[in-house]
């Protein structure tokens, strides 16, 4: 379990970014696969999620995940929250509810408002980030009493720029959104590469958040022991596991 130094300062919350180590799954899912949407054994996934939850709260039943769809849709969980939710971000001010997101190269972002006592877990692939998932979550927080100066964000492990080759139409799409997006692209030997975590970081900055932690671990690099969709595709595997990132108000 990897922790954000900035979030770890606050004893009022518990959190963690997990890699693929410590679970029950076998084969291409070895071993801490938390991907409920993967083709792994449901029994093993449940054991893995239970292992993750025990790191911050003994009750697996308190974990809320989403059916993620690479959107800008989020859900606020109050006392009467639903279980089966579709979207890419969760927000809650309820104690002892573990909220989490699953990733396999996309960016997990955990946010905490130390004054307003509210948390968020966000899944931002390039599509969700492009569609403004971060903006929607931050706007909701600000509308409901948060101040940007009190928000702390941790950008979790994701694919690095050097391993994220993209096609030209991808770059054109981003440049149409803003010419400033040129900053997130790099050309090496006629190949174009995109920095997803920088794109996310500067979005957070533009929304007024200054307390940002970047956990600079490349999910594509096997040495870091994370599941990676792109690495699995390159290896011609027919599926892949998912990493989990979680946060809870104690």
What does it look like?
The chain has 250 residues and is of the alpha/beta class. It has a single domain, classed as CNF1/YfiH-like putative cysteine hydrolases, CATH 3.60.140. The chain contains 7 helices and 15 strands. A hairpin with a 2-residue loop joins strand 12 (185-188) and strand 13 (191-194). The model has no long low-confidence stretch (mean pLDDT 96).
Brief summary:
This protein is of the alpha/beta class and 250 residues long.
Question: What labels describe this entry?
Answer:
alpha/beta, 7 helices, CNF1/YfiH-like putative cysteine hydrolases, globular
Write the layout of secondary structure elements.
Layout: H1 5-8, E1 13-17, H2 42-54, E2 63-64, E3 66-67, E4 74-77, E5 85-86, E6 89-92, E7 98-103, E8 107-113, E9 118-124, H3 126-131, H4 133-143, E10 151-155, E11 165-166, H5 168-177, E12 185-188, E13 191-194, H6 196-206, E14 211-214, H7 229-234, E15 243-249
Parallel strand pairs: 2-7, 3-5, 4-6, 10-14
Antiparallel strand pairs: 1-15, 6-9, 7-15, 8-9, 8-10, 11-13, 12-13
């Amino acid at each position: 379990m990897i922790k954000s130094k900035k979030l770890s300062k606050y004893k009022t919350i518990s959190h963690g970014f997990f890699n693929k180590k410590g679970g029950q799954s076998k084969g291409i899912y070895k071993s801490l696969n938390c991907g409920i949407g993967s083709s792994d054994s449901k029994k093993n996934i449940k054991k893995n999620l239970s292992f993750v939850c025990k790191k911050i709260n003994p009750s697996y039943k308190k974990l809320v995940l989403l059916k993620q769809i690479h959107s800008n849709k989020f859900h606020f969980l109050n006392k009467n929250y639903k279980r089966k939710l579709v979207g890419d971000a969760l927000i809650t001010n309820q104690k002892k509810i573990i909220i989490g997101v699953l990733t396999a190269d996309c960016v997990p972002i955990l946010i905490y408002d130390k004054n307003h006592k509210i948390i968020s877990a966000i899944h931002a692939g390039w599509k969700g980030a492009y569609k403004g998932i971060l903006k929607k979550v931050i706007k909701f927080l600000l509308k409901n009493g948060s101040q940007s100066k009190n928000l702390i964000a941790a950008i979790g492990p994701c694919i690095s720029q050097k391993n994220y080759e993209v096609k030209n139409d991808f770059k054109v799409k981003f440049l149409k959104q803003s010419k400033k997006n040129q900053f997130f692209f790099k050309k090496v030997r006629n190949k174009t590469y995109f920095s997803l975590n920088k794109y996310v970081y500067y979005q957070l900055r533009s929304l007024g958040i200054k307390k940002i932690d970047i956990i600079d671990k490349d999910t594509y690099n096997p040495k870091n022991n994370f599941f990676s969709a792109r690495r699995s595709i390159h290896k011609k595997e027919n599926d892949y596991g998912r990493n989990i990132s979680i946060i809870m108000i104690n």
